[in-house]
């Protein structure tokens, strides 16, 4: 678990460092993003020493490194799992997979309330209860499908990181007025950053150069 959290933090910090080098980012905003990242991965947060400084132009510069002593202590103090069961005809691997499914079921409830923003609502009619459950189920199936697509592309199993990076893409309408009083509209998509383009290449996605404007 600590290794997975450590890998996640390393990937995010590397991406954030690259963005700071290529974009003019606000130091306060970068510090808040780092705080959220470390707060979501408390098991491995102590393994990193992160520093955000302000350049002469007033923009953020990010530096980070791992603390070897903390990693050694985390490895020694991690302990081990002891599973007790009355099932005797399963292999160790089958038993472990069954146990992990319980943690995945618990994570599903967290995803509904956080990433999907679907919280339980007080319903007074049975058909509304069933409808709410159905929508939650479809949303979770879509979430897991995205996770499988990202895993196949070698991007891990967590859609939230990829969605967070790609959410910075914007669709823009360029309006050009003419002497005749007619506005010419051109709809386009913002140019992806280098890191976003790498994600798109892994996913096999290509952004269209132009998008037909609505009538």
Tell me the β content. Answer: 5-15%
Counting structural domains, the number is 3
Extended strand count: 4
Please give the order of strands in the largest beta sheet: 1-2
Number of helices: 8
Helix/strand structural class: alpha+beta
Q: Segments where pLDDT lies below 50 for 5+ residues? A: none
Share of residues in helices: 40-55%
The run of helices and strands is HHHEEHHHHEEH
The coarse overall form would be extended
**Major β-sheet annotation:** 2 strands, antiparallel
User: What is the overall pLDDT average?
Assistant: 79
CA(first)-CA(last) distance? 52 Å
CA radius of gyration: 23 Å
Break the fold down into its secondary structure elements and pairings.
Layout: H1 2-22, H2 27-40, H3 42-45, E1 48-54, E2 60-66, H4 68-77, H5 92-113, H6 126-152, H7 159-166, E3 171-177, E4 183-189, H8 194-203
Antiparallel strand pairs: 1-2, 3-4
Describe the model.
The chain folds into 3 domains: 80 residues, no CATH class; 66 residues; 34 residues, no CATH class. Helices cover 54% and strands 13% of the residues. The protein is built from 8 helices and 4 strands, in the order αααββααααββα. Helix 1 runs antiparallel to helix 2. The chain has a two-stranded antiparallel sheet. A two-stranded antiparallel sheet has the order 3-4. The chain is α+β, with helices and mostly antiparallel strands and 215 residues long.
């Amino acid at each position: 678990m600590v290794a997975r959290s450590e890998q996640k933090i390393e990937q995010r910090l590397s991406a954030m460092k690259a963005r700071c080098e290529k974009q003019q980012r606000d130091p306060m905003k970068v510090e808040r993003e780092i705080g959220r990242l470390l707060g979501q991965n408390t098991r491995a947060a102590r393994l990193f020493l992160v520093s955000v400084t302000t350049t002469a132009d007033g923009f953020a510069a990010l530096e980070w490194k791992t603390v070897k002593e903390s990693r050694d202590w985390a490895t020694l103090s991690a302990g081990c799992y002891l599973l007790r069961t009355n099932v005797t005809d399963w292999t160790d691997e089958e038993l472990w997979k069954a146990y992990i499914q319980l943690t995945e079921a618990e994570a599903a409830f967290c995803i509904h309330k956080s990433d999907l923003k679907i919280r339980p609502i007080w319903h007074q009619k049975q058909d509304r209860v069933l409808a709410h459950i159905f929508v939650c189920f479809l949303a979770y199936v879509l979430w897991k499908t995205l996770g499988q697509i990202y895993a196949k592309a070698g991007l891990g199993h967590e859609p939230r990181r990829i969605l967070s990076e790609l959410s910075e893409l914007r669709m823009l309408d360029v309006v050009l007025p003419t002497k005749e009083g007619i506005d010419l509209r051109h709809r386009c998509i913002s140019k992806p950053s280098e890191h976003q383009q790498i994600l798109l290449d892994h996913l096999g996605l290509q952004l269209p150069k132009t998008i037909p404007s609505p009538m």
